[in-house]
Amino acid sequence: MSNLIDYLPERYRNSPEIVELQQVLQTQADKLIAARDGRFQQFFIREATWGLRLWETALGIETDLSKPYSYRRTRIESKLRGLGTTTVAMIKNVAESFSNGAVEVIEHNGEYYFEIKFVGTFGIPPNMDDLTAAIEEIKPAHLGYAYLFIYPTWDDYDAFDHTWDEWDAAGLTWDELELYKGG
């Protein structure tokens, strides 16, 4: 935004009183613009901060201020994705929002359950408790579900083309080795 004094005729720009008045008004205008932009930011979940509480209240999500914004945003997005009739795509969408990776949903209609297979990440994704709560909320009551996690196989490790000495030198714990993606 231009300075307010730039909108005045030239003759006013030489008056110390007018310049001082315009500086005070400019400070207030800048504060108003910042407040407007901050409020507008709250309409977008990925940018919201203090507005997350409003989103949570509107969606019936318990507010936990001890959790980071990223965690709270994930829960809000998941809830929004879960509105409407439950479909395989919806379950996939919700699960992917918690796992930060690709997910497959495998239906077992005859047995009345489905499986959520995490194919985009190795191991157990974070926030499984919250994912479970979200799935419980959106799935039909008569359906069960199970999670399938993937871990690298020995063939996957062979593809990295490391010797046993190189693996040993890497100093990875078993948990780190299970999640190893190369490098």
How would you concisely characterize the structure shown here?
The chain is an alpha+beta fold and 183 residues long. Helices cover 48% and strands 13% of the residues. The longest helix has 26 residues, at 16-41.
Q: Which structural class fits the helix and strand makeup?
A: alpha+beta
Please tell me how large the radius of gyration is. 26 Å
What's the order of the H and E elements? Answer: HHHHEEHEHHH
Give the % helix.
40-55%
Compute the separation of the termini in Å: 47 Å
Proportion of beta-strand residues: 5-15%
Per DSSP E runs of 2 or more residues, the count of β-strands stands at 3
Overall geometry comes to elongated
Q: Average pLDDT across residues?
A: 86
Low-confidence stretches: none
Largest sheet at a glance?
A: 3 strands, mixed
The total of helices stands at 8
Side by side, the strands of the main sheet go: 1-2-3
Give structural notes.
The protein has 183 residues and is α+β, with helices and mostly antiparallel strands. 48% of the residues lie in helices and 13% in strands. The chain has 8 helices and 3 strands, in the order ααααββαβααα. The chain has helices at 16-41, 52-59, 69-81, 88-99, 128-138, 154-159, 164-170, 174-178; strands at residues 103-108, 113-122, 144-150. Strands 1-2-3 form a 3-stranded mixed sheet, covered by helices on one side. Strand 1 (103-108) and strand 2 form a beta hairpin. The longest helix has 26 residues, at 16-41.
